[in-house]
Amino acid sequence: MFGNMADMMGLMGKMKDIQSRMKEAQEQLVHITETAESGGGMVKATVDGKRKLLTLDIDKDLINSDDKEMLQDLIVAAVNKANENIESKIQQHLQKATDGVLPNIPGLDLGGFMK
């Protein structure tokens, strides 16, 4: 009986360590960035690990264009692509944060801890 209690206490300690590491890892996500482009590089968007748009660079030729709809589509495409591309960086960062504490379980998605 005492063995199980000691195991449970050890597990509780690990959970606190995991929570602490995850919190720290989440705070560091602002330092991870990804840039993507659309329109052959005419629109570039950079996002951080919190999926916040940091910069948006639009080629001057597009700004002078009368095709507002195309410009909007290119902006949306660049931002969405940057957000999609940063997912793997976020996963790698969170896995490193819990390396050695959490067992390596294939398919374990730590992204849910951030939302």
Automatic annotation (TrEMBL):
Coiled coil: 8-35
Subcellular compartments: Cytoplasm, Nucleoid
Classification via Pfam families: YbaB_DNA_bd (PF02575)
InterPro entries in the cross-refs: YbaB-like_sf (IPR036894), YbaB/EbfC (IPR004401)
Alphabetical keyword list: Coiled coil, Cytoplasm, DNA-binding
Entry's Gene Ontology molecular function annotations: DNA binding
GO cellular component, one term: cytosol
Record text on subunit structure and interactions: Homodimer.
Sequence similarity: Belongs to the YbaB/EbfC family.
Reported function: Binds to DNA and alters its conformation. May be involved in regulation of gene expression, nucleoid organization and DNA protection.
NCBIfam families in the cross-refs: DNA_YbaB_EbfC
Protein's UniProt name: Nucleoid-associated protein Dfer_4005
Lineage: Bacteria, Pseudomonadati, Bacteroidota, Cytophagia, Cytophagales
